[in-house]
């Protein structure tokens, strides 16, 4: 018999979780739209050339590539994936958005404030809570070079999180240019900045000792390495000018932090975090992430990527994005057993199988629908008592019996 | 520069269409849930073995197959797609549902009434109105062998269509067993039934003459062929017993037609159509389709497939499904310029770029949000008049200017 398991690293979603997911998605979408953003959609498939030519970093190693159709494949031992394949599944929503903007620019408002809600695909090693197909909810502002865009994105994302019942989360913020200036000033070369950041990104997991050990193993100078861990501990918004000269960078960081602090009304925190790196190669300015409670992963993340859209347009266009990790939100709310809003009341209308015309049963169900119930029409079984209790455990409010006892009996 | 076009045969969806699509999807989902169905979701990728082992018919020639990752490919000239690939994109929602049911059976209500809304993928030759990635909205009842399942699906689908403003559509219905009995009684062999059906399916396009011509060119007997076209013209619900002996088949057809007629309250029509075939190989009983107005394609279709789920479970399980072609619905409503419900009112709140802290602009926007507006915060440009008229054409209700003239001026 053919296996009925879903593809490795993916999963089936059952009815109860779908109710929660649909509610959350509707909340997020409502908040995004009310703040002036517009939803768009792009296909899950993109041309392989576009995907491979992007700054996708590690994600390019995790591509799902689609084999060419309708042409003879060049099946030689030297053939590479790009010889055999022409399409791939998107690994994020930012690259498709950049392509979308270039393709549809003439018909879009400027600045363009985009909503994207959809699945992305990465062939990661399967592990708890990590899936190879997962949903992201992104907002992006294209065409605004000022930090107002960052402030608006953080405000909107925070409001969406609060709509879903999250409170007391922390927005961590850093600046790519600050990172690279500090690292260079410590004596690292321009080329070393990337490597240093990759190690620094592991601080949460391996601690400062681990960071020092890893950098020393890469033969970086001892003084430079300990300078770095010192910087991580000491640098703060109060002493930024001791560490960097670029006043624009300092200005951007402090302006966003101050504005978001006022907007937060103490429902959440924003804090500068020099060890915040964010993996994606394409960020050029401010970067941010939301952490929540004891969970060792971020529930949202984003940043400015001013050099990406220019690859697909004739002109360079500034852009910033913020993405909510939908699967993580769902996971946390399920773990916290958080019943958001109530879903529609449901009832069972039982009928006897040989009871004449079924359209009368449907008509009887319509009466209950007008009272707000979702009505499930179910044929009675011999073991009726057992059948009733099965439904009482499935979240139904109650039941009635067609043509016999039409009063609703609550479970 | 890298092309910014979406993948051939797919398309980008712009904000205005997304508003319509989201409204329609919400309407369909609400109706389905209120009639006792439960939404589930499966991944867009399935194991290639599952896809290729299905009764997918023509769709198997249009698969998007995903190349194996992380293992050395067997790149010899003899290698087939199934040697090189391990996954594929789903071509419909019925096969994944059957797998889902087999995989999650223990946790599902019985009978299980499923909702699936999602995209499917077929590498068809691109043509107007046909896409390689398109959305379907399916309901299925698993575990009910009686025609009550068909009646419930037709009733629910018709109600969803009426919710979206469709009226006067026609539900065409036929029975696979009736088709094969009539064709065999005319003298065709058991093996010929499939071929005859493929030709008969073209009746709409090529007429009876075309059907006769094609069958004669396949060397079928002249008397048998003219008997078939005669059957198409003469067979009706009034004379079914003249054509077939199987009373169960006649009973099923007439019971569904009678019940749906009563439920329709003359808002739509149901009619027997002996030339209705439906392509998919897996149907075993009643089949149905919805046609609407002058459009030469169906807007919904489905049928009973009692032999499919058994391929993935230990036991045979009866099942029926009905699928709304979402892209066609959207296309028709756009063509008819049908404004369904009103979308959220939107306004622009302009601000001067160098006007102090941006969080005050956001706070001013919140005031308008409480009055139900979606608020787009936009920096004023020098050519303000031109900027205003650009937004007035984009469907905004009006605008205000932060800190200067805060009354809302309607467009």
Structure description:
- The structure is a homodimer of 411-residue chains.
- The first copy, chain A, is globular, with a radius of gyration of 26 Å.
- Chain A has 2 domains: 273 residues, Bira Bifunctional Protein, Domain 2 (BirA Bifunctional Protein, domain 2); 65 residues, no CATH class.
- The first copy, chain A, is of the alpha/beta class and 411 residues long.
- The model of chain A has no long low-confidence stretch (mean pLDDT 92).
- In chain A, strands 1-5-6-11-10-9-7-8 form an 8-stranded mixed β-sheet, sandwiched between helices. In chain A, strands 13-12-14-15 form a 4-stranded mixed β-sheet, with helices on both faces. Chain A has a 3-stranded antiparallel β-sheet with strand order 2-4-3.
- The interface between A and B is large, with 105 and 105 residues.
